[in-house]
Amino acid sequence: MGSTVVRHGVSEDLALSLAVEAGGFVYCSFCVGNVGQSVEAQVHGALDDLVRRLDGLGLDLSDVVQVDALFRDIWDIPVMEKVFRERFAGSYPARKSIQTEFAHIGGADGLQFQLDAIAYRGPHA
Predict the structure, then answer these.
(1) SS3 of 24, please?
(2) From the centroid of its chain, how far is CA 61?
(3) CB under 8 Å, gap of 24 or more: what pairs does 28-32 form?
(4) Where does the chain show beta strands of DSSP type E?
(5) CA distance 102 to 88
(6) Class of the CATH domain delimited by 5-120
(7) How far apart are the first and last CA of the chain?
(8) What is the pLDDT tens value at each position of the chain, 125 positions in all?
(9) Is 33 helix (H, G, I), strand (E, B) or coil?
(10) Which residue among 55, 89, 111, 119 sits deepest, i.e. has the most Cβ atoms within 10 Å of its Cβ?
(11) How many helices and strands (H and E) does the chain possess?
């Protein structure tokens, strides 16, 4: 018998779940914020979005073990690293950075950064 899977923030329109709990892990997708602002503001906005989701599940940034960071321009990694140093305060997750084109409202001047994250709740969940 498999573990229980719980989906949160299910969007029928987008055919996705904003967070999925399974096997002690919480998978959060499509964290964005401050679209149309600077890359730094968008990194903060994506983390704010992630924090809201984690908070609703009794978790915080210190529980995040993996982040996939998606950029329109991969050379903005140093901007993200600056924000991560501020926000994660030494409890850094493993990370992968990817450059991509976003299919998002606002086009090239809109979404510059998005992240997906995995947090660990533990086996007691």
Answers:
(1) coil
(2) 10
(3) 28/53, 28/54, 28/116, 28/117, 28/118, 28/119, 29/116, 30/114, 30/116, 31/114, 31/115, 31/116, 31/117, 32/111, 32/113, 32/114
(4) 5-11, 16-22, 25-31, 64-71, 94-99, 113-120
(5) 26
(6) alpha beta
(7) 16
(8) 456 899 999 999 989 999 999 999 999 999 999 999 999 999 999 999 999 999 999 999 999 999 999 999 999 999 999 999 999 999 999 999 999 887 666 666 789 999 999 999 977 54
(9) coil
(10) 119
(11) 2, 6
pTM of the full predicted structure?
A: 0.90
Residue type present at position 49: D
- Report d(CA 69, CA 39) in Å as an integer: 12
Residues 6+ apart with CB under 8 A from 45: 32, 33, 34, 35, 37
From residue 1, give the alpha-carbon distance in Å to each of 5, 64, 69, 108, 121. 12, 27, 34, 46, 20
Only one residue has tokens 């029928």, namely 12
* Cα(86)–Cα(104) distance, integer angstroms: 27
Residue 66 CB-density burial (10 A; 0-12 exposed, 13-18 middle, 19+ buried): middle
Domain edges within the chain: 5-120
